Amino acid sequence: MNTLFFGLLVVVIAAVFQGSFAVPMAYAQTWKWENSWMVFSVFGMIVLNMIFALISVPGLFGIYGTATASDLFIPLLFGIIWGIGAIGFGLGVTAAGLALGYPILLGTVLSMGAFIPMAVLHPEEILTRKGILVILGLLVTLAGIITSAYAGILKEREQGQGAGEITKVARFSAKVGILICFIAGLCSSAINVGFTLSTSLVDIALSLGASPNWAGNVIWVVLFTSGGILNIFYCAYLMGTNKTAGCYRDAGSIKNFILLLLMSVMWIGSFILYGVGATMMGTWGTVIGWAVYMVLSIAIANIWGIFQGEWKGTSPKTRHIMARALVILFVAILIFAYSGTV
Question: Domain limits of the chain?
Fold first, then answer.
């Protein structure tokens, strides 16, 4: 019980980072989207990811040398799929806004990323009390997402265009952003599926003396590096097409680099902490832990959207609907937390 509780607590901290990490990007105002996303891709997905893994997993490269091609193929493949979703995340959330984009994208990630591991790892328990509670939590989450999306539609009608800091750097309209968020969510769900199916790498790390709590970092390195390379090439293509590489010389670029480094630390830190918390929660960690991680991230992002002024100029009715969505999402968190105790 203590291990489950502390694992859940670590997941909650991870969710706070995940729900907040995109906020610094909103204030890198002299750069275009591709400039910010390039720095984030290099540092968050590759450099800091590798540094954390080297610190926490002794003999990291020896582990990869021991692994077979099939051990590396799954995180590599799912990392590429996730990389496509990550590009869509950056484009979709900046267009639709945190308060609307996050629920749609992460809601899709949540439902697919939690149900597939449950179906693969615990097919015999889907109709048990625990499995039914998880499915109930997913349904309640979807209700919260639909409610949040409805509030977002009303918001757009009342404001005319997206409002708030993060939408100022958008490349697309809010409606296109919503579509991008949904597609990106489908691709991004590959991250938890890939983590769940890559346990052979963790087994090798454990056999070579890695700590059980940190062994999951061997998966993140492969998964995020493959997806990160895809993001870097896409950003380089945009900078070449749009002639925006020179933005790095603009006034305020040092401040922007600091903001994007903060964003990178929060992002990769959230996944590392999620991996630790999910491991502490046991075999259901990538199901229940993932669900709590995603739902709380959605709620945190909604709260940030409110603080960033994305709901200014909306009617009391619209704001009440969004508040109702937050309540529903927190009910879902309670259901998932309870399911871990049965």
Answer: 2-339
Distance CA 98, CA 308 (A): 9
Q: pLDDT for 116-126, tens place per residue?
A: 777 777 788 88
What is the pTM assigned to this prediction? 0.78
Please give the Cα distance from 295 to 93 (Å, whole number). Answer: 16
C-alpha dihedral sign at 215, 221, 195, 133: positive
Contact 184, 105 (CB under 8 A): yes
The answer, yes or no, to whether residue 247 has pLDDT greater than 50, is: yes
